[in-house]
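Quiz preparation item.
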């Protein structure tokens, strides 16, 4: 699981993982399993956005920007990366 901020998805087993990490796990493992519990997962089915986690992430971004972290302010590198990931 990554430690960077990215859009979160909910697997059918109930575990949450970011979209890029889910893709990387599937590519690296060659098996359709959840990276947390290893339960068989069908990645052909769309993953469900985890709105609760996304709301926490959005609030964290706001706090970072308000605290003066320039990476999260307008045109900051981390904010730009985040906005690209959630498209």
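Solution:
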């Amino acid at each position: 699981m990554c430690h960077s901020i990215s859009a979160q998805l909910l697997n059918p087993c109930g575990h949450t993982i970011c979209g890029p990490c889910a893709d990387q796990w599937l590519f690296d493992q060659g098996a359709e399993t959840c990276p947390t519990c290893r339960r068989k997962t069908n990645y052909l089915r769309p993953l469900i956005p985890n709105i609760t986690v996304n709301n926490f992430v959005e609030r964290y971004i706001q706090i970072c920007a308000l605290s003066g972290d320039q990476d999260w302010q307008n045109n900051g590198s981390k904010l730009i990366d985040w906005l690209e990931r959630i498209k």
